[in-house]
Design a protein that fits this description.
2 copies of one chain form a homodimer.
Chain A: H1 7-14, H2 18-26, H3 33-46, H4 52-59, E1 64-69, H5 75-90, E2 94-99, H6 107-115, E3 120-124, H7 132-136, E4 142-145, E5 154-158, H8 160-173, E6 179-184, H9 191-202, E7 209-213, H10 218-230, E8 237-240, H11 243-255, E9 265-267, E10 284-286, H12 289-305, E11 314-317, E12 320-322
Parallel strand pairs in A: 1-2, 1-3, 3-4, 4-5, 5-11, 6-7, 6-8, 8-9
Antiparallel strand pairs in A: 10-12
Helix pairs in contact in A: 1-2, 1-3, 5-12, 8-9, 10-11
The first copy, chain A, binds a DNA duplex (30 and 30 nucleotides) through helix 2 and helix 4.
Chain lengths: 347, 347
DNA sequence: GGCAAAAAGGAAATCGTTTTCCTTCCCCCG
DNA sequence: CGGGGGAAGGAAAACGATTTCCTTTTTGCC
């Protein structure tokens, strides 16, 4: 592991000063053909690449963007990263990545440390609202993703209220009456979803029964399933915090002999790719995860460039209902259900 | 956005030299209680955090690890990142992340640029074998993941030959005879899989029919499905390059009215979490993705520390068969297949 | 009380660049 | 032929730390 060549080596080899080399590399100034040729030759010969750290010290730009993600295993976040990465790459930026799942407590510290190494941050976690000002005080441009951020900051997210509202509308229209909602208890990041669902049901004189998962994961969906199904007043539809929970839920429900959608409708939120391949295919709401990452990165790049973002404050992406096979139309109150497995006798 | 305090500010505030502050921060030297108290007070008051870039320039350590991944949307790679991230975090390292999918051509350049900002690299892509020496010449420790790397370098991966071999054994034992393999044509990263499957079938006088997908994705699995099923000599089992391809394949096959596993067995490789939730649940081989990331990172950290890695050369992780419902025992050659669901009559 | 040795703290070089002035040098024109 | 002006290239000061010597003080001990 021999030391890498420095600009000084190049200058020596080419017989010019380091200032000249620097200016040549950056295209700051033109030089005589002879000099430029010598410099280029020296660079090639030594396989010189300038040290980005040293450059950063001077320019104050690092060329990387920090991306703080709750859990990379969740395809929703994976998609965000994918979109953000694409845009960043197009603009010559790298992604410095932090998955905070394991260390919620250290989150603020991690972000603070990270902030020195990047030109800006995309923060997409469930960090408590009161910690946000600390992130903003870091002195780097920040875009919050997936939540509405405090006054004066920039954020982007799906319209979760609308998403939940359209799910409520769908289910009611399909004839469901006893609708359960499986939410995400710690940190309550689902206020808007709850409100959207509650409002839509209320318009029809209904209200959701609420259940709590401990996290937005497959495992929690599985765990919470029996709680929901064994409780009093079995629901005829379940709205899950996200697709992961919904998929886990469906898996266990099926194992328990519940037929979906005949016995029970299930709806998720996010539209992760695998929702198409579950049995039945999952009805959900598309949250445009990848676009979220792309647009978030675009906003951030503008912030970094010192331009006013095209959309200061909170940018809302429109959700889109994705109707598949895990929900179905139900007959009014008492449906006979012809097939071998007749089940319903509401009162 | 006011400027952040420097070590000079702290020194001034505390009435000591910057050398003293530096030594205090790094614990390099002890000072009198009075001085230490003043320094600490100054640090707190100014909310000083040392600039990692400046520190890196001197120490030559950056505190980040570069992770180069083919496609973050593939849960296999996501798991690798997750595992690597966990270990890195435990050791105080960040992850600098590159998803190269969009820019295979620029891959080498991206890595070269990245290499200056990190203390080591984990490379998990399909980069052509002849480009690997270039990566090694970067002068940073590298661990290649998911492939066998050149002499003198460190790599880690599943034993793909064994994985494919055990799939072949399983299928033959279950009575399958016409076995198709859906591989990954560009860059042929599946040599070992092909060989393992071929060898296992050959032991029973059989040979796989090969089909090519253009990428290891859901979409390619879907696309290739009709090709496989419409060709002459329909197979009774399909082995897919990975779970993604298998899941896409199963989705389309089901749509086409093929019953799995009654009409056709399907096997994947990787054991991604969603394989449990497809219909039917996917038989696969676990490639320990997360452990791959963890162990890869451990190897790299040892390399960085200058210690001999516990396992120089190539480390093989053992695959493990995960038998689920997408494969089933078949009767000898011509199976009548009586009633819709009755199927078994071993003998 | 005197002297050596250890403790405490600081000056300055350094890491590899960028960038802001300068200094030359050359050419052209009156 | 002299002088003005631009072109070409270089010197040196940053950037914000770490680290290697030093120079002072203390302290310990006889």
């Amino acid at each position: 592991m021999k030391k890498r060549p420095t600009i000084r080596d190049v200058a020596g080899q080419a017989g010019v000063s380091i200032a000249t080399v620097s200016k040549f590399i950056n295209g700051t100034q033109r030089f005589s053909a002879a000099v430029e040729r010598r410099i280029q030759a020296a660079i090639d010969e030594l396989a010189y690449h300038s040290n980005p750290l040293a450059r950063s010290m001077i320019t104050g730009k690092t060329g990387s963007i920090g991306v703080v993600i709750l859990d990379i295993l969740n395809p929703h976040f994976t998609n965000i990263v994918k979109g953000a990465n694409r845009i960043a790459l197009e603009h010559g930026y790298n992604l410095l990545f932090v998955d905070t799942e394991e260390s919620q407590a250290r989150e603020s510290d991690l972000i603070a440390a990270l902030s020195r190494r990047v030109d800006g941050l995309i923060v997409s976690t469930r960090m408590p609202q009161e910690d946000l000002p600390g992130v903003l005080a870091l002195g780097k441009p920040v875009v919050f993703s997936g939540r509405v951020a405090p006054e004066g900051s920039v954020s982007i997210g799906i319209d979760a209220y609308a998403a939940a509202y359209m799910i409520g509308e769908l289910l009611v229209k399909q004839g469901h009456r006893k609708i359960a909602y499986v939410g995400f208890a710690p940190a309550r990041p689902d206020q808007e979803r709850i409100k959207g669902l509650t409002d839509s049901l209320a318009a029809h004189g209904l209200a959701p029964t609420r259940f709590e998962a401990q996290g937005p994961t497959l495992a929690e969906g599985e765990r919470v399933c029996s709680t929901v199904l064994l409780g009093k007043g079995k629901p005829d539809a379940v709205v899950c915090y996200n697709d992961l929970v919904a998929i886990g839920f469906m898996g266990v429900a099926t194992t328990l002999g519940i037929r979906i959608p005949e016995d029970l409708s299930v709806v998720g939120i996010d539209n992760i790719p695998f929702g198409r391949f579950t049995s039945p295919a999952l009805t959900t709401v598309d949250t445009q995860s990848e676009k979220l990452g792309e647009e978030g990165m675009r906003l951030l790049l503008r912030l970094i460039a010192g331009e006013d973002p095209p959309a200061p404050g909170h940018t809302r992406l429109e959700p889109r209902l994705v109707l598949r096979d895990s929900t179905r139309v139900r007959l009014a109150e008492a449906s006979p259900g012809p097939a071998p497995k007749a089940r319903r006798r509401a009162g």
